[in-house]
């Protein structure tokens, strides 16, 4: 038997239970992975609360790193003994070991440890697709990135600096603002003491920005639209404050023919060749030192509920991991 977190109903952090589970052998296209570290991400909250529905009982967690123990038929890109990391569905990473689709696994380079691997995959691949594919940055742009001191945000600050991009980051405290600046944000805005729309217009000389990357959702959505220059792109990739409410498409027209997209990592990594290319670029950025993964919180797997409490109360900075 193996220890894992399971939910038998949706709700608050208290619905997570630390239980014994039977792992079993991998079937066709599957692999059994023994985790050395598991990632913690806001998407886990969405599954726990039922915002993202799934059949119950269910596991949580989309990201982990460890060693392959066994593979099923048809699996050729990884083998028993390989060091691997992943970010992908179905949830279930909050576990000592699991059987999972092998298609999500990529080999972890020797120069990247398990904790970094578990902390970087979902957040790092998210920044890769946001900056390289959703709205490709060439260098020289000024962009707005919300939650700049979070796990995705700190990676984005560093990646933007490496690309020669001026990143304006929003944060919830002065301390978080200092953290974002240390990681490469050119400007920071404390949304609790400043109007971020007014500050963006001030920083850009009234022009606004060509793209806003927004994982906050409801609380920042309209303000984000107001920060865009004509023909700008709104990238809404999360809903930390709640889902974006219905809105009139004329809101896009009246602000200068704006574009809007709601991407997910799993659409961008659906094809094996895309996942391999994205992971290779991420590993290169981390391996070269251009992007450092800041693991600022570590929790025992059994303390996953406390990890969620801290995450939802915005007490965390950088990345968080669970240790089996």
From TrEMBL:
Transmembrane segments: none annotated. Gene3D superfamilies: Medium-chain alcohol dehydrogenases, catalytic domain (3.90.180.10), NAD(P)-binding Rossmann-like Domain (3.40.50.720). Keywords: NADP, Oxidoreductase. InterPro entries: ADH-like_C, ADH-like_N, ER, GroES-like_sf, NAD(P)-bd_dom_sf, QOR-like, Quin_OxRdtase/zeta-crystal_CS. Residues 11-322 form the Enoyl reductase (ER) domain. PANTHER family: QUINONE OXIDOREDUCTASE PIG3-RELATED, QUINONE OXIDOREDUCTASE-RELATED. This is NADPH2:quinone reductase.
């Amino acid at each position: 038997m193996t220890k894992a977190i399971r939910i038998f109903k949706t709700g608050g952090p208290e619905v997570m239970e630390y239980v014994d589970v039977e792992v079993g052998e991998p079937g066709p296209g599957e692999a059994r992975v023994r985790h050395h570290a598991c990632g913690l991400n806001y998407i886990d909250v969405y599954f726990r609360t039922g915002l993202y529905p799934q059949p119950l009982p269910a596991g949580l967690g989309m990201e982990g790193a460890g060693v392959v123990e066994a593979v099923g038929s048809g699996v050729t890109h990884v083998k028993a003994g390989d060091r691997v990391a992943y970010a992908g569905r179905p949830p279930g990473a909050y576990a000592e070991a699991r059987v999972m689709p092998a298609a999500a696994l990529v080999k972890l380079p020797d120069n990247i440890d398990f904790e970094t691997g578990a902390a970087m995959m979902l957040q790092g691949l998210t920044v890769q697709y946001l900056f390289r594919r959703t709205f490709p940055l060439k260098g020289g742009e000024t962009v707005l990135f919300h939650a700049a001191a979070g796990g995705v945000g700190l990676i984005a600050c560093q990646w933007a600096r490496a690309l020669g991009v001026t990143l304006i980051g929003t944060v919830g405290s002065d301390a978080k603002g200092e953290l974002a600046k240390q990681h490469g944000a050119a400007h920071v805005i404390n949304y609790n003491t400043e109007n971020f729309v007014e500050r963006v217009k001030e920083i850009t000389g009234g022009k606004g920005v060509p793209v806003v990357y927004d994982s906050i959702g409801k609380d920042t959505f309209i303000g984000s639209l107001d920060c865009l220059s004509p023909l700008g792109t709104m990238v809404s990739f999360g809903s930390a404050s709640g889902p974006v409410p219905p809105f009139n498409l004329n809101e896009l027209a009246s602000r200068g023919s704006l574009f809007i997209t709601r991407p997910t990592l799993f659409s961008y990594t659906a094809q094996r060749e895309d996942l391999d290319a994205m992971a290779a670029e991420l590993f290169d950025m981390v391996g070269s030192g251009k992007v450092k993964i800041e693991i600022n919180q570590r929790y025992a797997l059994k303390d996953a509920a406390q990890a969620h409490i801290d995450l939802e109360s915005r007490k965390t900075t950088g990345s968080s991991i669970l240790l089996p």
